[in-house]
Design a protein that fits this description.
The complex is a heterodimer of chains A (76) and B (921). With 76 residues, chain A is α+β, with helices and mostly antiparallel strands. Chain A has 3 helices and 4 strands. Chain B is 27% helix and 24% strand. Chain B contains 24 helices and 46 strands. In chain B, helix 4 packs parallel to helix 5 and helix 8 crosses helix 21. In chain B, a hairpin with a 4-residue loop joins strand 37 and strand 38. The chains are: A alpha+beta (76), B alpha/beta (921).
C-alpha cells in the first residue's frame, strides 16, 4: 500500500514535470480475451489505452476456438 | 515498441478479399494450425479486427521482387510495399500483462506420435477442424484421407500433471477436461453415430455448471469415459488408424484401434516468458508464469505492472475476463487523477425536424467490394430502387462502410434533403451503429435508418443463382423502403449517474470491492447483516499458498473503517430497493434506524454457507467434524487433535449428488491444505483422503503431489459405493471410527480405524443471496448461485444493468479468486460510475392506456422487471420503465389487445414490410 502511494506520487510528479505527457495512459500487452476486456474496461472508465498484440489481429486463442463450454456458444 | 509492416494500408483496406483470391502463393494457414492453406496476402481470420488484409513473409514480392498482382487488383489502392517497421514510443502510467499462454507442443516428446502419425491431432487443431470457418469448413475430416473419422479418442493431461524430463508440466492445466467434453458433444452433433472415447485421470469439472456438462457428455450414446493411463501404440498401414494401449481394472491391458486421436494439450506459459519478464522487470514463479501477490493475483512484483488471464497460471475464459477487469480496476486506483483527461467527446450537428415533411428516402446499394456485386446486379438494384414510392435518390457504392462513403452518404442526405435512409448492404449486427452515426452526422434522427441485408441474407447464400439473388435483393430493398416510410424519430435519453455504490455483504468479496471503488474516488455504502465484518473468512486462517488470512482480513477491515469514503452498516438489513441503472434507491435498516441510500451501482457479495451434514455420524459423534472445524482445531492445537493417530477425510459430502448436482470446487484443495498442516504438526499421523476425483486444479496440483510425497494416502471411491462409518473398538481396545471403503485398485473392502473424521462438506448458497434475489430482481442458476449476464464474457454482472456480483455468492471460490473477482466487480462498476450519464435506447416498449386491459401478461413476460402497473387517469394500467426496457419485444407477443408496442418495431412498420414482401409475389 505504501509502495503504491509512493508510486502514485512519483507518477504525479513526472506528469507535472512533463507538461502534456500522457502518463495517465495504460498499456495492455496481449490482445486475447483478457487483454481486450481490460482495454474495454479502462477505455470505458475514461483512460486512453494502448493495446498491443504480436499477431495481425486481436482475438488470441479464444478466436481459434470453435465454441465455448458449457453453453456451446460460438467462440469467435 | 516495433510496429511490424503489414504492407496494407488499414485505413484504405475494406476487407473485400479480392486480392486474396488472385494471390498465387499458398502457404499453411497459421490460424488454422497449419492444417489448411492460405495465401500470402490474407485476413488473419474471418472476424479479425482490424478486418483488413496483411501480407506475410511468404509473399513473392517481398522475397524476390516479383508479382504485385494484389496491387493491381486492389480497388481501394491499399497495398503499400513501401511500408517499413515503425518504432513507436509511448509513455504510460500502468501496464497490464495479458500475455496469455502457449499451447503445449506434444512434438517435444516422441511418445504421442504427433507430427509422425497423420491422424493424431492436438485439441487446438481439433477446434480448427470443428469450426465452420476452420480448416475443412466445418467438416470433421482426417488428414490422411480427408474422410470422416468415426471412432475418435481423446487423451487427457497431455503435457499436464506429469513430471517428465522430456517435457511436460507438473501442474494441471484446469481447462482440458471441460474442453474435451465440449469437443465430444460437438462431435456428436456433427455425427450422431460417432464413437467417442476419453482416456482420463481425475475428471476436473470444478467450475460452475460444469458437473452437469460432464454428465451430459457422459450420457451421450457411444461415449466412453475410461480412467486409464495410456500410450500410443502404432499407426496401422493403409488405414492410417492409430492404436492406443490402456488398462482397466476389469479387463487388464488392451490395445484398441481408433480412426483419429485428439491430444488434450495443456497450457504453457507464453513463449519467451523469461525474456518478457526481464523486459518488464517482473519475477516469475517456478513454472514460468507471473509471480503474483498471495492476496492479490493481479499484482506483479513490480509496482504499476498488473497481470491478467492465463499468464497468472492456467485460467479459463471467465477467469481471464474477470482478472482483466480486476487489473483494470487497480490501474484505476493508481491513475484516478488522470481519468477522463485524455478522452475526447464527439460533437454532432443539430438534428433537423422532419416530422412535417413527406418521406424522402435515399437508397445506397453497396457492392461490398465484390462480395455482393459478383452475385447481385447492383446497378439494376439501384435503378429499381428509384422506381419505389417515396424514393427520391439512389446510388451504388463500392463500400458503404468506408469512411469516405459514410461522408458521401451524409453529404448526399443534406444536398438532396433526404429524411430517411436505406442502406442495402450487410447485417445490422455489424454496421447499424456506424450508419446511425452517419445519420447523426447528416443532422437526421438516427432511427430514420433501415438496412436491407443483401449480403448475409442474399449474395452469400445464393452465390450460384445470380438472377434470383438480384430479384431477392430488390425484394429486400422494397421491404426496407416500405418500413422506412413509417419510421419515427426516437430520442435516446441520457440518464444521470449517481456516483455512489452500494455493496451488500461485508466478507472478503464485499470489503475488497468496496475498497477498490472508494480508492477511485467514489462514495461506498457497505451493508453487512452480521455484527462484524469478515464473513466466512473469519473462520479461515491460512491458504494453501501460505497467506495469513486473519492478518490480511484485519488489515482490510481496518482500511475499510478508516476510509473517508466508505460508510459501514453492520447488523443491517435491506428493507426495500428500487430504481434503475445509475439511479437506485435502497432503504437500509440498522440499529433501529432506517437510512435511504441513493446509489448508481450495486455490488452483491452475499457469500455462501457451509453445508451442515447429516451423513457419516456428523452431529452424533464429536470425532466427526467439518473442515472448517478441523481448521479451528489445528489453529488452537487442540489436544484431541494432537493425540490423533489416524485421521480420515471424506470428500464430496453433500454435493456431486442428486440434491446438489455441482462440485464445491474448493474442498479438494482445502483437504490437502489441512493434511499438509497436520503433517507439519505431527508427521507420524496417518492421514487418508477418500475422494472421487481429486480436483486440485491449476497450480494447486503441486500441493497434491507434495501431500502424496508426505505419505498422505489417497483412496478413490465411487459415487454409488460411498464409504461407511461406524463406531467400533479396535484390537487394542481403543474406541475408533471404523470407515470401510472399497479400494478400486485392489478390488476389495478396506477398513480404516480412525480417531477423527473430517468431512469436506459442500458450499451452499447463503440465505442472504436468496434475499438479494427477491429484493434486487436478480436471478440464480438452478443450484442457487447468482447467475451472471454471460458465463464467459460478463462474469461479474447481472443481466439487470448496474448490478454486479462477486465472491462465493457466484460460486465456491478460494480467497485469492474471490479477491480477483471483487476487484473485477469494482472495475466494472467504475465503467458506470465514472460516467456522468448513460444512454438508454429509444427503441423501448410503450403502452397505449386506452387498449390496455390490465391483464398483466406483459409484466410476467418481461425478464427485466421493466413493466409494472401504474395508476393513470384511465385507471390501473401496465406502464413501461424505459431505462429498464431492453427492447426484446417479448411483451408485444403476449399482449392480447396489441396495447403494448415496441418503438422502432411497431406493428405498422412490420406489417408494411410484410405487405411489401407479398406485393412482389
Amino acid at each position: 500500500m505504501e509502495q503504491e502511494l509512493l508510486l502514485k506520487e512519483q507518477i504525479q510528479q513526472l506528469c507535472n514535470r512533463g507538461g502534456n505527457n500522457n502518463f495517465g495512459d495504460v498499456m495492455v500487452i496481449g490482445g486475447g480475451i483478457s487483454g481486450i476486456q481490460a482495454s474495454l474496461d479502462l477505455a470505458a472508465a475514461g483512460y486512453k489505452v494502448y493495446l498491443v498484440d504480436k499477431a495481425p489481429s486481436i482475438g488470441g486463442h479464444m478466436a481459434q476456438l470453435d465454441k465455448t463450454f458449457p453453453t456451446n456458444d460460438c467462440s469467435s | 515498441m516495433i510496429k511490424k509492416p503489414k504492407y496494407v494500408d488499414e485505413s484504405k483496406c475494406t476487407g473485400c478479399k479480392a486480392c486474396v483470391e488472385y494471390c498465387p502463393v499458398k502457404y499453411p494457414d497459421q490460424f488454422n494450425q497449419e492444417i489448411s492453406q492460405n495465401k500470402a496476402i490474407h485476413i488473419y481470420f474471418t472476424q479479425a479486427i482490424p478486418l483488413a488484409t496483411y501480407i506475410d513473409e511468404s509473399c513473392l514480392y517481398l522475397k524476390e521482387k516479383k508479382c504485385t498482382i494484389c496491387q493491381a487488383i486492389c480497388k481501394a489502392d491499399a497495398i503499400d510495399f513501401n511500408q517499413t517497421a515503425e518504432k513507436v514510443e509511448v509513455n504510460v502510467g500502468a501496464i497490464i500483462l495479458a500475455l496469455g499462454f502457449e499451447p503445449f507442443d506434444p512434438k517435444l516428446r516422441n511418445d504421442y506420435g504427433y507430427g509422425k502419425f497423420k491422424n493424431v491431432v492436438t485439441s487446438l487443431d481439433y477446434e480448427r477442424i470443428l469450426s465452420p470457418s476452420g480448416a475443412y469448413e466445418g467438416e470433421i475430416l482426417r488428414a490422411s484421407d480427408k474422410k470422416h473419422p468415426h471412432k475418435i479418442a481423446w487423451i487427457q493431461c497431455v503435457g499436464s500433471r506429469q513430471v517428465n524430463p522430456a517435457g511436460g508440466n507438473s501442474y494441471c492445466s484446469a481447462v482440458c477436461c471441460s474442453y474435451a467434453q465440449k469437443q465430444v458433444i460437438l462431435t456428436k452433433e456433427h455425427d450422431a453415430e460417432a464413437e467417442c472415447t476419453i482416456f482420463h485421470n481425475d475428471v476436473r469439472t470444478h467450475n460452475k455448471d460444469l458437473e452437469r456438462y460432464f454428465q451430459k457428455a457422459e450420457q451421450l450414446p457411444g461415449v466412453r469415459f475410461i480412467r486409464s493411463y495410456v500410450s500410443i501404440g502404432k499407426e496401422i498401414p493403409k488405414s492410417n488408424n492409430v492404436t492406443i494401449r490402456y488398462s482397466t481394472p476389469d479387463d487388464g491391458v488392451k490395445e484398441e484401434e481408433f480412426d483419429m486421436v485428439v491430444l488434450s494439450i495443456g497450457l504453457n506459459p507464453p513463449a519467451n516468458y523469461q525474456a518478457l519478464a526481464d523486459k518488464f522487470g517482473i519475477e516469475l514463479n517456478s513454472h514460468g508464469f507471473c509471480k503474483t501477490g498471495l492476496s492479490n493475483p493481479m499484482e506483479a512484483t513490480k509496482p504499476g505492472v498488473f497481470v491478467s488471464g492465463s499468464f497468472q497460471g492456467p485460467a479459463d475464459i471467465p477467469e481471464s475476463v474477470y482478472t482483466a477487469s480486476g487489473a483494470g480496476s487497480q490501474c484505476g486506483e493508481l491513475l484516478d487523477y488522470r481519468r477522463g483527461k485524455l478522452s475526447k467527446e464527439r460533437i454532432y450537428p443539430p438534428e433537423r425536424d422532419v416530422s412535417q415533411e413527406e418521406p424522402k428516402v435515399g437508397v445506397f446499394v453497396c457492392h461490398c467490394g465484390a462480395n455482393i456485386s459478383r452475385v447481385v446486379n447492383v446497378p439494376s438494384a439501384v435503378e429499381y430502387a428509384l422506381t419505389l414510392p417515396n424514393v427520391v435518390y439512389a446510388q451504388e457504392q463500392l463500400f458503404s462502410c468506408a469512411t469516405n462513403s459514410a461522408k458521401e452518404i451524409a453529404d448526399m442526405a443534406k444536398e438532396k434533403g433526404l429524411n430517411r435512409l436505406v442502406i442495402a448492404a450487410c447485417s445490422i449486427r455489424t454496421l447499424e451503429p456506424l450508419f446511425r452515426d452517419t445519420l447523426r452526422e447528416a443532422g437526421i434522427n438516427q432511427y430514420y435508418l433501415d438496412m436491407a441485408n443483401i449480403r448475409e441474407h442474399c449474395s452469400w447464400v445464393h452465390s450460384k443463382e445470380k438472377e434470383e439473388a438480384t430479384h431477392k435483393a430488390k425484394d429486400l430493398i422494397r421491404m426496407s423502403v416500405a418500413r422506412s416510410s413509417h419510421l419515427k424519430p426516437l430520442q435516446e435519453f441520457a440518464l444521470n449517474v449517481n456516483k455512489t455504490a452500494l455493496v451488500v455483504g461485508g466478507g472478503v468479496a464485499g470489503l475488497t470491492s468496496a475498497l477498490s471503488v472508494a480508492n477511485q474516488g467514489h462514495e461506498v455504502y457497505l451493508v453487512e447483516k452480521d455484527t462484524d465484518l469478515g464473513g466466512m473468512a473469519r473462520r479461515i486462517h491460512y491458504t494453501l499458498e501460505g497467506l495469513d488470512v486473519q492478518e490480511y482480513l484485519h488489515d482490510v477491515i481496518r482500511q475499510v473503517y478508516q476510509h473517508p469514503l466508505i460508510r459501514v452498516y453492520t447488523e443491517a438489513a435491506i428493507t426495500e430497493t428500487g430504481g434503475f441503472v445509475g439511479n437506485f434507491i435502497t432503504k437500509v435498516k440498522a440499529q433501529g434506524r432506517v437510512t435511504e441510500i441513493k446509489h448508481g451501482a450495486t455490488i452483491l457479495a452475499t457469500g455462501a454457507e457451509e453445508y451442515q451434514p447429516i451423513e457419516y455420524l456428523y452431529g452424533k459423534d464429536d470425532r466427526v467434524i467439518t473442515h472448517l472445524e478441523l481448521e479451528e482445531q489445528i489453529v488452537k492445537k487442540e489436544e484431541s487433535l494432537l493425540n490423533t493417530r489416524s485421521l480420515v477425510m471424506i470428500q464430496c459430502v453433500g454435493c456431486r449428488n442428486e440434491d446438489r448436482n455441482y462440485c464445491s470446487r474448493i474442498c479438494c484443495s482445502e483437504s490437502i491444505k489441512n493434511a499438509l498442516k497436520l503433517k507439519e504438526l505431527n508427521p507420524q499421523m496417518d492421514i487418508y483422503i477418500l475422494f472421487r476425483d481429486m480436483r486440485t486444479y491449476g497450480l494447486k496440483e503441486d500441493y497434491y503431489r507434495e501431500a502424496a510425497g508426505k505419505d498422505v494416502r489417497f483412496i478413490r471411491y465411487e459415487a454409488q459405493d460411498q464409504p461407511q462409518v461406524e463406531e467400533a473398538v479396535d484390537e487394542d481396545g481403543r474406541n475408533v471410527l471404523r470407515i470401510s471403503v472399497t479400494d478400486l485398485i485392489l478390488g476389495k473392502k478396506l477398513e480404516i480405524d480412525a480417531d477423527k473424521l473430517a468431512l469436506a462438506v459442500a458450499v451452499i448458497p447463503s440465505a442472504g443471496s436468496q434475499e438479494a434475489v427477491d429484493l434486487f430482481k436478480v436471478t440464480t442458476n438452478q443450484d442457487g448461485f447468482f447467475k451472471e449476464a454471460h458465463v464467459k464474457l460478463r462474469p461479474v454482472e447481472f443481466a439487470v444493468d448496474g448490478v454486479y456480483l462477486c465472491g462465493m455468492a457466484h460460486y465456491p471460490k478460494h480467497i485469492a479468486e474471490t479477491i480477483s473477482q471483487s476487484y473485477a466487480a469494482a472495475g466494472r462498476a467504475l465503467t458506470l460510475l465514472s460516467r456522468d450519464s448513460v444512454v438508454a435506447s429509444g427503441a423501448v416498449a410503450e403502452v397505449n392506456g386506452n387498449d390496455c386491459i390490465s391483464c398483466g401478461a406483459c409484466i410476467t413476460a418481461c425478464s427485466y422487471g421493466a413493466i409494472e402497473f401504474m395508476m393513470t387517469p384511465q385507471g390501473r394500467k401496465a406502464g413501461v420503465n424505459p431505462p429498464l426496457c431492453k427492447g426484446d419485444g417479448l411483451c408485444n407477443t403476449v399482449c392480447p389487445t396489441g396495447a403494448i408496442q415496441l418503438k422502432n418495431f411497431t406493428d405498422e412498420q412490420i406489417l408494411s414490410q410484410i405487405d411489401a414482401a407479398v406485393a412482389g409475389l
